Amino acid sequence: MKFSSFMYLAGFGVKTILFRQKKPILGTVIVTDKCNLHCKHCSVNNITAVIHPYGQIKQEMQQLYDMGVRILFFCGGETFMWQDSGRNIRDLVIEAKQMGFMIVNVVTNGTFPLDLPEADLILLSLDGDRERHNAVRGDTYDRIMENIAAATSDNICFYMAINQINKTAVRDVCALARDTKNVRAVSFNFHTPYPDTKELALSKEEKAQCCEDIKYMMKQGAPVFNLKSAFRHLINNSFPTPCHQCVVMENGRLSTCGRCIDVPDLCSQCGYFFVAEYTLLFRGNIRIIFEMLKTYLKYI
């Protein structure tokens, strides 16, 4: 991370904590909900299967920038399926950097070639070892690993949603992140139980065991891009929601925190680690502040 970016983000954090501001710093643009997979835990793929046009995406990026957002995510659907007017997701990342966004990340299922060195992180969904990942996402594990090996940069971060299918594979994914070329880190979420996927949700005890597995693997040198200080809050769902510093833009509609905010009672069951981490950060939790500084400077 550039020193100037660090200072800007640090200043934002200080002002947010001192003055209880609710301005956003992290924004997500949904470029499409079209996806080539039909994962068992996903409730947001292929609802419209519309690829949003370049002009609209650019306008949404500018709107977020003007609001003060400086950390930008491109999400889907599957982001690498986005194409319009001769442009692809790489062109959007480059344009976002030129626009002034300080950190630009892309979320992908990893089934397309990973030629995206301009992104700060490619958050690649890997949901367990071969058996459990394929149980969640179909027969894609080997293709993903081939794409990782052939990637043009080492900016890949595994992105695992822990659920009833893959809860025993946390250590496997940590070890793979540690030992695989081109993979910088691994980031976790607990499954957030949308109404059609409630059966995949974890109990409090199961969440606690997964956090113990993550902590154990961190001691073994696994590069985990999450904050241990937030684990107990995630286990008990005791962190404040929604996160006002995060916004999502999809087809011209701006949502605070995430697309799921309008689903009744879902916020109280949130499994997103970053939501816990950011809400606790901007409430001035000292342990979170220092741990986040250490983690972000290491992996971004």
> What is the ordering of alpha helices and beta strands?
HEHEEEHEEHHEHEHHEEHH
Top CATH class = Alpha Beta
Strand portion, in percent?
15-25%
Q: What is the count of structural domains? A: 1
What's the average pLDDT? Answer: 95
Strand order of the largest sheet: 8-7-6-5-2-1-9-10
Under the CATH scheme, which architecture would be assigned? Alpha-Beta Barrel
Low-confidence stretches: none
* Subunit organisation of the chains: single chain
Structural class estimated from helices and strands = alpha/beta
The helical percent reads 25-40%
Stated plainly, the CATH topology is called: TIM Barrel
- CATH homology superfamily name: Aldolase class I
What summary fits the major beta sheet? 8 strands, mixed
Notable traits:
300 residues; alpha/beta; TIM Barrel; two-stranded antiparallel sheet
What report would you give on this structure?
With 300 residues, this protein is α/β, with parallel strands linked by helices. The protein has a single domain (24-299), classed as Alpha-Beta Barrel (TIM Barrel). It has ten helices and ten strands. An eight-stranded mixed β-sheet has the order 8-7-6-5-2-1-9-10, sandwiched between helices. Helix 2 packs parallel to helix 3. It is globular, with a radius of gyration of 18 Å.
